Amino acid sequence: MLTLDELEPGLAVTHKNTGLRYAIGDVADDEVLLTPVDSDLQDLLVPIDLFRTEFVTAERYSARGRSRGRRRGSSSAPATPTGPKVRGRIKKMVRDRGFGFIRGDDGKEVFFHRSGLGGADYDILNEGDIVDYHVSESPRGPRAENVRQTVPETAA
């Protein structure tokens, strides 16, 4: 069973029963956000007790995958967003859980998570900030990736 001291963002973990591989995106007091290694899957928010019993560090689990070679989407580098680049304003930040919402200039609201941008970039963002981002589709709907704070355009 994983100890709480072992849990840190970026740690590679594997589900014991399915062999699916994830990276820890964020750890809160009562839950863990997991980002799948295979881009066809969605992020998981798992209660900490369930996570500690159902997942192991990837190095300790070899029942699947190791003899089959690398799976599609197993690169450790984050995928480059392929969706359109959009400008918007941060509507809400939920700092204790590491995510927020952006209302785009097109009027659409999208979710973003700190795992979709650099940790330092997340820490400087505030509600009301103007940001540029890429929209990508996830199983749960549109998601903002590569969120970057920007300066407002001045009227000429």
Helical content (DSSP H or I, runs of 4+) = under 10%
How many helical elements?
2
**Spatial sequence of strands, sheet with the most strands:** 4-3-2-1-5
Please trace the helix and strand order, writing H or E for each element: EEEEHEEEEHEE
Overall shape: it is elongated
Q: Quote the average pLDDT.
A: 75
Whole-number count of domains: 2
Q: What structural class do helix, strand and pairing data support?
A: mainly beta
Our estimate of the beta-strand percent is: 35-45%
Computed over alpha carbons, the radius of gyration is 17 Å
CATH superfamily of the largest domain: Nucleic acid-binding proteins
Low-confidence stretches: 60-79
Biggest sheet character = 5 strands, antiparallel
**Briefly, what CATH class of the largest domain?**
Mainly Beta
Which fold name is given in CATH as the topology of the largest domain?
A: OB fold (Dihydrolipoamide Acetyltransferase, E2P)
**CATH architectural category of the largest domain:** Beta Barrel
Strand segment tally: 10
Distance between the termini: 61 Å
